[in-house]
């Protein structure tokens, strides 16, 4: 009887130790305040494209989260930027362009859409820059992460938000 109590007490202590000592797995947290702010945009917004300076990278391994096809790289837990979208449009395009001199470092994009689905991209338009197109975007919150393909890499550049047919390889 005494041995079983000791065993139960030992197991309970181990469980409690794991619950409080081990850190939670890193996640992308779309509930967090974005690192580089947010904007409210409506269909037909001007000027188009809207731009925001962003630095890629972080410690969260996006590949380990199994978010879907093309979701890779390393990003911060908080989104880099948030777009609150309204109105009717045939397309909403997000693309990132690395600053000159940093174009040899691969970046990725992760977007949590207004319906909770994930869209991701690594390379687009024959470049190492990512882009995500959303056909007929619904109203709501779109959270955007700019990741770095390699751990510990940080790339400064510009996030573009457009309804027009700008090509990330020939950005405005």
Give Rg in angstroms: 20 Å
Order of helices and strands: HEEEEEEEEEEE
Main beta sheet: 5 strands, mixed
Spatial shape: globular
Q: Output the CATH topology.
A: Jelly Rolls
Uncertain ranges: 4-24
Number of domains: 1
Order of strands in the sheet with most strands = 1-5-10-7-8
What is the architecture at the second tier of CATH? Answer: Sandwich
Number of strands: 11
Structural class of the secondary structure composition? mainly beta
Would you write up a description of this structure?
This protein is mainly β. The protein has a single domain, classed as Jelly Rolls. It is built from one helix and eleven strands; from the N terminus they run αβββββββββββ. It has one helix at residues 2-21, and strands spanning 38-42, 50-55, 60-61, 74-75, 81-86, 91-98, 107-112, 118-121, 131-135, 140-148, 156-162. It has a five-stranded mixed β-sheet, with no helix packed on it. Strands 2-11-6-9 form a four-stranded antiparallel β-sheet, with no helix packed on it. It is globular, with a radius of gyration of 20 Å. Residues 4-24 have low confidence and may be disordered.
